[in-house]
Specification:
T-fold, about 325 residues, globular, about 30% helix, alpha+beta, 13 strands
């Protein structure tokens, strides 16, 4: 079984434990309590959930519900579980009676694929696999895969050739494969936020690979998200204040195929090359899935293109850091 690809992250949660009563109170003065904290992974990325509540037993029940939901969604979207719905689709070229969440996320992906002129391309997986196989060889050419192989992989990178409905998902061409790594963490984050809201949460910061705030902090101040070159950096270079919004960041430095850092995981479906324009692209949006997809696509777009597309969206902010 393939192992998850480790990626460096560029977001740090600032003062995550400050002022964090997360559930609706009863009107009584809240007593200071130790937060219930869960650390784990969601789709291969570090994840965290913090809940402060006067009833620790109820808080722990809610954490358990969140973890169960995350594991269930991983069984659908993970590329690294051979029995996941996505892995079965990639292996067989079609899947009957697909999970509702897979159909929903593919429909969301279709919207961003069209919106970004194909820059957001879930069908890029054959090209990603080509680079991974090439640089796994001890005698790998540092210039990258042969251009003929790149062209063959690009011919399969067309999400428009994926047929999706609630009864069946199928590829139009043999050899196609999907990756949802550019949006699935955002989608999982949004699903966790929905679960917490249904349980009465009014103030929280959820980190399931991407970050999304529920309301403001308990003191009424915005949540603070720091952007840095690495998650464990000594200092951040940008601070974002967010209330009821999500933040996602994409960077070619997050994962690189080669030791020289010339080839990253952000692949351009038009040319087969990797993104080189920005060292970091961060997007603030109402939903984490939106921020996640756009941060990936914007990594492949010129500033004027990004500005024009962002203006078409509701409450989307973009923060670019040049190379």
């Amino acid at each position: 079984m393939a192992k998850p690809v480790g990626r460096r992250r560029f977001i740090t949660i600032m003062a995550a434990f400050a002022g964090l009563p997360l559930l609706r109170g009863t009107g009584r003065a809240a007593l200071p309590v130790e937060p219930v904290v869960w650390h784990g992974q969601a789709l291969g990325a570090p994840a965290m959930l913090v809940l402060n509540h006067e009833d620790r037993a109820q808080a722990k029940v809610l954490v358990t519900r969140v973890v169960t939901e995350v594991r269930r969604l991983e069984d659908i979207f993970s590329l690294y579980r051979e029995d996941s719905a996505l892995s079965q689709l990639n292996r067989m070229g079609a899947i009957a009676a697909p999970p509702t969440e897979l159909v929903e996320l593919l429909e969301i992906s279709r919207r961003f694929h069209v919106l970004t002129g194909g820059r957001f391309e879930p069908a890029i997986q054959p090209l990603w696999a080509l680079y991974a196989r090439h640089f796994a060889r001890l005698d790998a050419d540092p210039a990258g895969p042969h251009q003929e192989k790149v062209r063959e992989a690009l011919a399969l990178a067309d999400f428009g050739q994926v047929r999706v409905d609630r009864n069946r998902v199928a590829f139009s061409r043999r050899g196609m494969a999907l990756t949802l790594n550019g949006i699935a963490q955002g989608y999982v984050t949004d699903r966790v936020v929905a679960l917490l809201r249904e349980a009465g949460v009014t103030s929280s910061l959820v980190d399931m690979g991407e970050n999304r705030a529920i309301g403001a902090r308990a003191d009424g101040q915005p949540w603070r998200i720091g952007l840095a070159d690495f998650e464990d950096a000594d200092a951040v270079d940008t601070t974002l204040d967010v209330t009821d919004r999500a933040v996602a960041t994409s960077s070619g430095q997050g994962f690189q195929f080669d030791a020289d850092g010339r080839f990253s995981h952000i692949l351009d479906p038009r040319s087969g090359t990797t993104a080189q324009r920005y060292s970091r692209v961060s997007v603030v949006a109402p939903e984490a899935s939106t921020a996640d997809a756009l941060s990936t696509a914007f990594s492949l777009m010129a500033p004027e293109e990004i500005d024009a597309l962002a203006r078409q969206q509701t409450s989307v902010e973009v923060h670019l850091k040049s190379q």
